[in-house]
Design goal:
Structural class: mainly alpha
Helix content: 55-70%
Shape: globular
Radius of gyration: 17 Å
Number of strands: 0
Strand content: under 5%
Length: 195
């Protein structure tokens, strides 16, 4: 039975959240989640890159790699497509929103190596999604990643560092919070499974 794009979209946000279920894209998630504004900017950028590069990689896979019999190059080609698009996005953000560009710092070009983006591209191939399903899954995954980083940023803003024991400050408390959020999202897993 083929899963509908609508269900796939909502499942990618909640039951199959790319960050809280598969723990993909943790590096920039932990580093940029200190401020809500930066977290929101990075989350939007990651979601946008996820949607566009997944669509491009789907087209490249089914219209270039398979017909020419060079599927074994899919990892290299997917990474090249992601890197080229992120470079283009970095130029646009630097040109039109320099404050966001400087607040994201090194993590903007590092979207290229965000494993969530490559992971979504590989999931669409492994699970044999159609183009519409790929768009729904990548949009849901992007929104799910954005939701997770915004939740962590909001919790970190409310959490007073002074109240946290010294050994748990910084990344440790962020990982504990992420684990608790992941448990909350597991509660949605009975609704629908995407595999």
């Amino acid at each position: 039975m083929e899963i509908s794009a609508f269900v796939l979209f909502w499942a990618a946000i909640f039951t199959g959240n790319i960050l809280l279920t598969y723990f993909l894209g943790m590096c920039s998630y932990l580093s940029i989640s200190k401020e809500i504004e930066s977290a929101f900017g990075l989350g939007i950028a990651v979601a946008f890159v996820l949607i566009v590069t997944s669509a491009l990689n789907w087209l490249v896979y089914y219209y270039i790699l398979i017909p020419f019999g060079i599927v074994y190059l899919q990892y290299i080609v997917f990474i090249i497509v992601i890197a080229a698009f992120v470079q283009f996005l970095e130029l646009v953000i630097e040109r039109y929103t320099p404050s966001l560009y400087y607040s994201l710092g090194i993590f903007l070009p590092l979207i290229t190596v965000n494993c969530a983006i490559l992971g979504v591209g590989l999931f669409m191939i492994i699970r044999k999604y159609s183009f519409i399903q790929t768009l729904a899954f990548s949009a849901g995954s992007g929104i799910g990643w954005l939701l997770a980083i915004l939740m962590l940023a909001a919790i970190r803003r409310k959490l007073k560092e002074k109240m946290v024991p010294a050994g748990l400050r910084g990344a440790a408390i962020s990982l504990i919070i992420t684990g608790i959020m992941a448990l909350g999202f597991i509660g949605f897993s009975g609704i629908v499974q995407i595999q």
